[in-house]
Write a structure and sequence with these properties.
The chain is an alpha+beta fold. It contains 5 helices and 18 strands. The strands form 4 sheets. Strands 3, 4, 9, 11, 12, 14, 17 and 18 form an 8-stranded mixed beta sheet that branches. Strands 8, 10, 13, 15 and 16 form a 5-stranded antiparallel beta sheet that branches. It is elongated. It starts with 13 loop residues before the first helix and ends in a 7-residue tail after the last strand.
């Protein structure tokens, strides 16, 4: 039997959302968040069951320059319109485990007091979808949860990005769990199915860039109207990489996101200052360093990268902010790759500026 895709009762897609919502309310281990979120520092993948529930076989693993607690990293995208994916579809459970979990949730939802009307009917149609081959346009149904194919593939389901603040975006992947044979790509209609590009964006979201402390001459205390040289040595100023991967039987992909430093911006911490160059944007040199180290005999020269303070900081300090712009690119499974928006990250350091004391005779 067939109907239209995502509308088991012939109404709007809201019916499907109602059915999924009912399952979420009926069961603490919701199908809306089936995949255990990967944490930083090379977390292991999981699979199987414990004494209370069956949990996801797939887990995103992060390694390289990423946060160790799975939180958002310190990179700020230069493109204010770019955001990481709010949700995606990923491998969930094998057929037997999926049958156990989903059938329990369906029965629980059906027995929930007040669960009737449209939502109750939608749950019934969902049960028919997995048990009695009820399908709709381009979405075939399943016979007994595909248990005769257990081990030959997995059901995929929606995963919410826990760092997405907008709940509507986070829950926008609301298709029912669907089957994918081992070695096959998910159907093209599931545009949010996990792929290298999505992994690259998630690695970007968790990337941890090094602090940006520039070398200054004079080091921490300078004089009014005296040029202060600033530079970053190539030995401590290099590209960083973050990798995200997912591996389950019959399916494995990965992506590595690379951040390459390209420029340094100096903000003196006061409007009573000049920067060199005037824009405050110091370009990277051919040897991958930025600026030029101060050398004996350079006192009368203008630094290629630096600051001249025009007044004293008094009893306080100026907060010099040094922000690096990083060029972001990625490569992934199957030769995929491309560019992501540039990222920025900056840190501050204290600078004391003193008046030059004249000696009168």
């Amino acid at each position: 039997m067939n109907g239209s895709r995502r509308t088991p009762l012939g109404n709007s897609a809201t019916v499907l959302v109602l059915a999924i919502s009912a399952l979420m309310l009926a069961a603490p281990n919701s199908a809306a968040e089936p995949v255990d979120y990967g944490k930083g520092g090379g977390s292991d993948e999981k699979g199987g069951a414990d004494d209370t529930s069956i949990y996801a076989a797939a887990k995103i693993q992060y390694s390289g320059a990423v946060t160790k607690n799975g939180s958002t990293g310190n990179v700020t995208s230069s493109d204010v319109n770019w955001t990481p994916p709010p949700c995606w579809y990923a491998p969930y459970l094998g057929a037997k485990d999926f049958k156990k979990k989903m059938s329990e949730q369906i029965e629980s939802a059906k027995n929930t007091p007040g669960m009737g009307g449209t939502a109750g009917a939608a749950i019934g149609e969902m049960q028919r979808h997995y048990e009695d081959e009820y399908g709709w346009t381009d979405t075939p149904g399943y016979k007994d949860y595909n248990v005769d194919k257990d081990g030959d593939g997995m059901f995929w389901a929606a995963v919410e990005n826990p760092d997405e603040p907008d709940v509507l975006k986070r829950s926008s992947c609301n298709d029912l769990p669907f089957w994918v044979d081992n070695g096959d790509a998910p159907p093209a209609r599931y545009e949010e199915a996990i792929k290298p590009e999505i992994l690259a964006a998630l690695a970007y979201q968790r990337m941890q860039l090094p602090d940006t402390k520039v070398t200054l001459a004079p080091e921490t205390t300078t004089k009014v109207n005296l040029p202060t040289w600033a530079w970053l040595d190539k030995a401590v100023f290099d590209e960083v990489q973050a990798t995200a991967a997912i591996n389950v039987p019959g399916f494995g992909i990965q992506a590595t996101t690379t951040a390459k430093p390209v420029s340094l911006k100096l903000e003196p911490g006061t409007t009573d200052a000049e920067t060199f160059p005037a824009s405050g944007q110091c370009a990277i040199n051919a040897d991958n360093s930025i600026g030029q180290p101060y050398a004996k005999g350079d006192a009368g020269k203008t630094p290629p990268c630096g600051i001249r303070y025009l007044r004293s900081s008094g009893d306080n300090v100026f907060k010099l902010r040094a922000t690096i712009t990083w060029q972001i690119s990625w490569t992934g499974t199957g030769g995929a790759g491309g560019d992501l928006p540039d990222g920025t990250f900056g840190t501050t350091q204290d600078v004391t500026v003193q008046e030059i004391q004249a000696v009168n005779r």
